[in-house]
Design goal:
- With 106 residues, the chain is an alpha+beta fold.
- The chain has a single domain, classed as Phosphatidylinositol 3-kinase Catalytic Subunit, Chain A, domain 1 (Ubiquitin-like (UB roll), Roll), CATH 3.10.20.
- It is 17% helix and 38% strand.
- The strands form 2 sheets. The protein has a 3-stranded antiparallel beta sheet with strand order 1-2-3, covered by helices on one side.
């Protein structure tokens, strides 16, 4: 898998809010970034912050995804409103996240 984001372990607490270390890899650009995110942040907020940390602009074709239990990339585009905590509880993003170029044509 090319682009991955890992949410690891128990993390830090700042102001009573739990933070987790996030690791992001952009498949097309082969760039990586690491930063802390709050478990109450939405997947959309983490995705947006990933571009800031990577120093890369988002394109219309980009897809936010995570590896499923079989290790295959699964789109998170229908779940962007979930918090990291909720997404983890649902098994959507145990460890690995990706930013990949979407497929499809005109």
């Amino acid at each position: 898998m090319a682009d991955e984001i890992d949410i690891k372990g128990a993390g830090d607490r700042k102001g009573g809010r739990e933070k987790v270390q996030v690791h992001v890899r952009h498949l097309g650009e082969r760039e990586k970034a690491n930063f802390k995110a709050d478990l109450n942040d939405t997947l959309q907020a983490v995705w947006d912050e990933s571009y800031v940390e990577l120093g890369i602009s988002k394109t219309e074709r980009d897809v936010w995804q995570a590896a499923n239990k079989q290790g295959e990339p699964t789109s998170l585009m229908d779940h962007l409103g979930l918090t990291l905590d909720d997404a983890r509880s649902r098994g959507l993003c145990d460890k690995d996240f990706e930013i990949a170029a979407g497929t499809g044509g005109a």
